[in-house]
Each structure stands twice: as C-alpha cells, then as structure tokens.
Write a structure and sequence with these properties.
By secondary structure, this protein is of the alpha/beta class. It has twelve helices and 16 strands.
Length: 349
C-alpha cells in the first residue's frame, strides 16, 4: 500500500481528505502544520506528500525547501494543495521544485489523478537514478591501471613459462592480454632474411599482448620469455567489457599505448641514425633497467638478445662490447655484464 503524508492545518479538510485517500487504498499519515510534517516525512519517508501552503509554524514553501535539502526526502514527489490561485504563488511553488499544484476546492478524481501521475513519474525517475548509480559504482570499481592490474590478479588465468619459451607467435589468435608477475619478456619480429628484431621489452608489472580491443586481430609480433616468467592472462573479451564500463582506466590505458608507440619511434630513430656504440650502450642500460638492477649489479643476458634489441649483428655487438671493456665502461664474464662507469655509458647512449 502506498504511503501518503498529508500536511494540512484545516482540521475538517485534513480529515475529509484523509478519508478520501484511505478509501482509494492509500495509507495516510497526517500532520497539522509544516513543522510536524517535516519531522514525519523524515521518519516515515512516504511515497508522496500533499501539502497546504498557508500554515502556522512553517508554511508549505518552507516544508518543500527543508525536504529538498535532505538526502533522504529530496526525491519524494510533492504536491501543493491551497486555496491560493494567484499565478505568482503557483510559479513560486513550481520554482522551488513542487511536482504539481492543486487548488481548493478540488474533486476526488482531480486529486487521485494527480497523485497517481506523480507516483508513476517518480517510479520512472527512481529506475533511472538506480541505473546511473550502478554505472557509477562499476566505473568507480576500476579507476586506475593499478586497479586494472588487481582485476587481472583476481580474475585472470596464471601461466608459467621457462626461459626461452614462446608465449605466442606472430599470426596466432590474440586471445589474451598479459600482466607480468615475474620475469622478462621480449617481443620480436623476423625480417625477410630471417633476422630477428626485438620490438619491445616488458618487465614485472607490465601489460603486453594487446593488438585490438574491438577486432579479432592476430598478434603482430612474437613474444618469448627471456627468463623464467609468470604471467596472468585475461581474455580480450573480458578486458573489453571492463574498459567499456570503466572509462577512467580506458584513458590511462590509452596513455600507456601512446608511451609504447613513442618508444617504438625512438627505437626506429636510433636504428636509422645512431652509431653502433650508441645503440649498444643504450641497449645495455635498457636491459639493466628492465631487469630492475642497480648499475653496480651484474646483468645476465644473451648476446643475441642484446643484438636484436640494438638492431645490429651479434658479431658487431660483441666487438663493440669488447671496446667498452677496454675503455673500463663495463666488465664482461661469460654472459654476465657489469656496468663500471654509468655516466660515461649514459653519455654514449
């Protein structure tokens, strides 16, 4: 049964109107003045309020203003009931946010029709508000890349790859986007002569494997584990659904893609114009960074991987590293490299 709060200071009119509404299957609570009416509205939270304007203690305008400013009562439909018929009074009530205005004397059909109409409208608006709140809550669930990575952890599938194992190959269906929990990944392509070029390096906490979020495109490059690696994979379909509902993190992901593109452009520029020494120095520093090593720490990496990232022949890389060793810039022992003079190496890079 729908609850109506009737606020009216005229005893006879209040009792007659209450009886009329009860006969129409409404549960009626009445108040003799505006002050009591505000208190009751906050307590019982009725489905609709019918309120006189001219009353002691607090007039109808004051009642409407008080309830509009309260989070609990601000969306309750509000109908003014008054003998005042001046246009300015009607306009004032509507400007304050009243849903309707009925003048005395009124008949039963007029009042019931107004109440039913406003209740129906209120139900529609409530549904809209609830849908908006659901969308907001979903959007607020994942607001940053860190939130997205936590979502990977909670909802993704875990994979473990040994050193040199293939994660995926160019041309495979791009079913997953990956988060690296542990390890180091290189993405690479082969030219027409079969020479490998490393296009990107990804370390712990990086995302990789994205091609298109809207089309079923194959992977445009291959991915291989440089070290024993643990990944969390999330299906592209699931991630696309998350991004559709969480616009803030979508923008952050776009920024990440933009940064990746900038790195690729820088790599192309380096390959085109940089000296062999500069390419080699920059690649050593890049691996040190990706492996989360301090300059004084050793890094263990294959010469082939270093050469493919630098975009030079392995033999050329080895000769250049030997030159760096003679200059006292690095120390080499087998596959292990230690940076001895970070500043000079940076100057070359």
């Amino acid at each position: 049964m729908r609850k109506i709060l009737l606020i009216e200071d005229d005893v006879v009119l209040r009792e007659n109107t209450s009886e009329l509404l009860e006969l129409s299957n409404y549960e009626v609570t009445s108040a003799a003045n505006g002050k009591i009416g505000v208190q009751l509205a906050k307590k019982i939270v009725p489905d609709i309020i019918v309120c006189d304007i001219m009353m002691p203690e607090l007039d109808g305008y004051g009642v409407l203003e008080a309830l509009t400013n309260n989070e609990i009562t601000q969306h309750i439909p509000f109908i003014f009931l008054s003998a005042k018929t001046e246009r300015s009074d009607v306009r004032k009530g509507m400007d304050l946010g009243a849903d309707d205005y009925i003048t005395k004397p009124f008949n039963e059909d007029e009042l019931i029709s107004a109440i039913e109409s406003r209740l129906a409208k209120a139900a529609i608006l409530k549904d809209r508000r609830e849908k908006i709140e659901v969308v907001k809550e979903e959007e607020e669930d994942i607001r940053s890349l860190n939130d997205l990575k936590n979502y990977f952890e909670d909802n993704g599938e875990t994979f473990t790859f040994l050193k040199d194992a293939s994660i995926y190959k160019e041309g495979n269906n791009s079913n997953y986007i990956y988060l690296i929990n542990k390890g180091l990944i290189k993405c690479h392509k082969l030219d027409e002569q079969g020479k490998q070029l490393t296009t990107a390096l990804y370390k712990e906490d990086d995302l990789f494997g994205y091609t298109s979020f809207s089309q079923n495109l194959a992977y445009q490059e291959s991915a291989t584990a440089i070290q024993k690696t643990e990944l969390v994979g999330l299906s592209k379909k699931t991630l696309t659904g998350v991004l559709n509902k969480n616009h803030k993190v979508t923008l952050e992901l776009i920024e990440l893609l933009t940064e990746d593109l900038a790195v690729v452009k820088d790599q192309l520029l380096q390959m085109a114009y940089s000296s062999v020494s500069k390419k080699t120095a920059k690649t050593i520093l890049m691996f040190a960074e990706k492996l989360n090593r301090k300059p004084e720490d050793h890094i263990k990496i294959s010469r082939n991987d270093l050469a493919s990232v630098a975009g030079i022949a392995t033999e050329t890389l080895i000769r250049t590293m030997s030159s760096f060793k003679k200059q006292g810039l690095i120390e080499i022992e087998g596959r292990t490299i230690k940076i001895l003079d970070l500043e000079k190496l940076k100057d070359i890079s």
